[in-house]
Amino acid sequence: MPKTADTKPSILKAGTKAPNFTLKTTPDQTVSLSDFAGRPVVLAFYPADWSPVCTDQMGLYAQLMPEFKKFEAEIFGISVDGIWSHLAFSKDRKLNFPLLADFEPKGAVSRLYGAFEGAAGESARALFVIDKKGVIRWSFLSPDGINPGADGILSALEKLE
Amino acid sequence: MSKSYHPPHLTLPVGDRDHSEGPAGAPVTLVEYGDYQCPYCGAAYPIVKRLQKELGSSLRFVFRNFPITNAHPFGQWAAETAEAVGGLGKFWPMHDFLYEHQGSLGDETVFARFEGTLGLDVARVAREVAQHTYLPRVEEDFMSGVRSGVNGTPTFFINGVRYDGPTEVGSMLSALKSAAKERGTPKA
Predict the structure, then answer these.
(1) Which of B50, B51, B123, B145 is deepest in the core (most CB within 10 A)?
(2) Is B159 helix (H, G, I), strand (E, B) or coil?
(3) Is B13 inside any structural domain?
(4) Which of A42, A44, A54, A75 is catalytic?
(5) Residues of B with CB below 8 A from A95's CB?
């Protein structure tokens, strides 16, 4: 599969109004970004449940919940996996924050944020920190196969307000 | 990729607080952030030993704790045990024993027996672990890792720069050698 600069997604930049979306988090519950107006929101797009890199990344965020809570921030993991995969993955890895299913139409929200890898048909590994007013304050696209960790998110949260 | 990628740097410099093997003035320092229950760290353990053997006194190796407790229920206990034993001057034997007995994690008697063979006050170690005497230190290690771009375990830094290559002897050895060459002069 060709991996060239042209196929690299171009993610939404700091200063952009974060597009609203509604996605399923359980079979009968949805989450909308607009529900969290007034609080910082972290969106962590990732390629797939179960792959080793993502596992470390999401497990790390789970462990860092007390740090994120210091900023009253909500964090959501987003991939194109369906809700049943998310539930099994979340249970297996003891994740303590919601995973959202960008499943139907596939990758629509990832595309809105410029975080869709067309060639792979997956979300890119992209991070967004959104402020209380719904404006993206920091975004980061991680190189292929590299787990971005949490430092960028924490630094961005520290700089809000 | 059009943009060049810069791997993150170690934010907490290697110093007296650290457990290290090899000379402080070695031309290359390898820092590992690891979790005693992580299978990938277990797999990295003999690789680090091999690197130390290959590079001898030109390598300084430092280990810091990064227990991912959601995935590894005994990781925190093991980290605090190694630190408590470290407080009695035997960090490295315990560090090695933990990685050589990952399968026994959860059975505290195995580790207590080993502490006994080291001639340590086993009850004191147990008490300090129960009282979380070394919890702040483990947390300091952990957060220093988070702020340095540690994203899972094991994560390595070579002369303060995150190593993003594969965890295997050949790649790591050539990265360490080229870092040593770059440095040229011994580290102050």
Answers:
(1) B145
(2) coil
(3) no
(4) A54
(5) 70
Judged by a CB distance cut-off of 8 A, whether residue A59 touches chain B is yes
CB contact under 8 A, B68 and A64: no
Query: What is the bridge-based pairing of β-strands B59-65 and B28-34?
Result: parallel
Give the whole-angstrom CA distance, residue B155 versus residue B173.
15
Q: How far is CA A106 from CA A29, A119, B13, B31, in A?
A: 18, 13, 45, 41
Parent domain of B79: 26-181
Which residue, chain included where needed, has tokens 């860092």?
Answer: A64
Question: Could you tell me if A151 lies within 8 Å of chain B, comparing CB atoms?
Answer: yes
Nearest to A150 among B2, B71, B146 (CB): B146
Q: What CATH number does the domain containing B140 carry? A: 3.40.30.10
The count of domains in chain B is 1
B121 lies in some domain: yes
| B77 part of a folded domain | yes
Residues of A in contact with B1 (CB under 8 A): 5, 8, 143
- The domains found in chain A, sorted by start residue, are 5-159 (3.40.30.10)
Are residues B70 and A5, on separate chains, in Cβ contact within 8 Å? Answer: no
Per-residue pLDDT tens for B21-69?
999 999 999 999 999 999 999 999 999 999 999 999 999 999 999 999 8
The interface pTM score, or ipTM, of the predicted complex is 0.77
- Residue A49 appears among annotated catalytic residues: no
Q: What is the secondary structure of B6-38 as a DSSP string? A: ---B-SS---TTSEEES-TT-SEEEEEEE-TT-
If you ran DSSP here, which 8-state letter would residue A11 be given?
P
